[in-house]
Write a structure and sequence with these properties.
By secondary structure, the chain is mostly helical. It has helices spanning 12-29, 42-53, 67-84, 111-119, 121-139, 148-154, 162-171, 198-201, 214-220, 228-241, 246-251, 257-269, and strands spanning 9-11, 98-101, 106-109, 191-194, 209-212, 224-225, 275-276. The strands form 3 sheets. A 3-stranded antiparallel beta sheet has the order 1-3-2. A two-stranded antiparallel sheet has the order 4-5. A two-stranded parallel ribbon has the order 6-7. Helix 1 (12-29) packs across helix 3 and helix 2 runs antiparallel to helix 3 (67-84). The two termini are 29 Å apart.
């Protein structure tokens, strides 16, 4: 919802990447191979074939596999999504929720639907996770379904934020974003923190990530930083936007200051109203 462009559009590649990552982690990491009744879902066949072809261990999350293999998986699953996913709710909602175009490979949300999703984001995510877990539990068996809701709730989480840590360390001083203390001291281990909690965002974007010391990271936990820090992260992100670094520019695609302000305001509306300061 925060990666759309100014026309409320997402690319098929963006959606297919998220779709592939979620199902890879369900199928490969957690062995939840039954995703529908009857024969295996096409996504299961694609992912299992790629895992077998490249002999990828079951403990490897999607983020850990080679980039070229990721691209191959996303490409194959995108083709299947064109057949079975993008149009799935289109007729049921009479085309009022979203539009899609196979030729340009863009998916466009109705602005009113996007606004509704922002307002009720936490509720929608919780309901989706619950019903997804309930369906998977019916189709799969112990031990794969043990701690199932926890597995479903974390399937989108990135296995490591180290790549983002490197980006931030390459371009900014090695100090805690919150308390300003240096992170070079061995007693202050460097952490990468989601400025607005991951449990609300449910995704990893460099524009929502900051370097933090162990003390601040532990103390902040799942809380929202006081609003003063919002101005600081906007200033930091404006510095990132003008970096002459292709990797950074790719990570900042479709970023606008208004997005992180929206994210902050909507997180409060969705119940993340416990404000933290160091």
């Amino acid at each position: 919802m925060y990666q759309i462009n100014d026309n409320f559009e997402l690319t098929y590649d963006q959606l297919a990447y998220s779709f592939t990552k979620v199902y890879w982690n369900l199928i490969v990491q957690h062995n939840l191979v039954k995703q529908n009744r009857g024969k295996n879902a096409r996504v299961v066949t694609i992912i299992k074939d790629i895992q077998s072809t490249y002999q990828i261990p079951a403990e490897f999350s999607f983020d850990k596999i080679d980039n070229q293999i990721q691209i191959k998986a996303v490409s194959e699953i995108k083709s299947t999504m064109k057949q079975n996913v993008f149009g799935a709710l289109y007729g049921d909602t009479r085309g009022k929720f979203y539009a899609f175009d196979h030729k340009s490979e863009y998916f466009k949300l109705n602005p009113a639907v996007h606004s509704f999703m922002l307002n009720y984001q936490r509720l929608i995510v919780n309901l989706t996770n619950y019903h997804m877990a309930a369906m998977i539990e019916q189709l799969n068996e112990v031990p794969s379904i043990n701690y199932l809701l926890g597995k479903v709730e974390t399937i989108a989480r990135r296995s490591s934020l180290r790549p983002f840590e490197k980006v931030l360390l390459d371009h900014f001083e090695q100090k805690c974003f919150y308390c300003g203390k240096t992170l070079s001291n061995g007693n202050r281990q460097t952490h990468v923190d989601h400025f607005i909690p991951w449990s609300f965002v449910q995704s990893d974007h460099v524009w929502n990530l900051v370097l933090s010391c162990n003390t601040c990271n532990s103390s902040k936990s799942d809380k929202l930083p006081k609003r003063d820090f919002l101005e600081d992260i906007i200033e930091r992100n404006n510095e990132l936007i003008v970096k002459e670094d292709e990797n950074v520019l790719n990570l900042m695609t479709n970023y606008k200051n208004k997005k992180i302000i929206l994210l902050y305001d909507y997180s409060i509306k969705n119940g993340f109203d416990q404000i933290w300061s160091p």
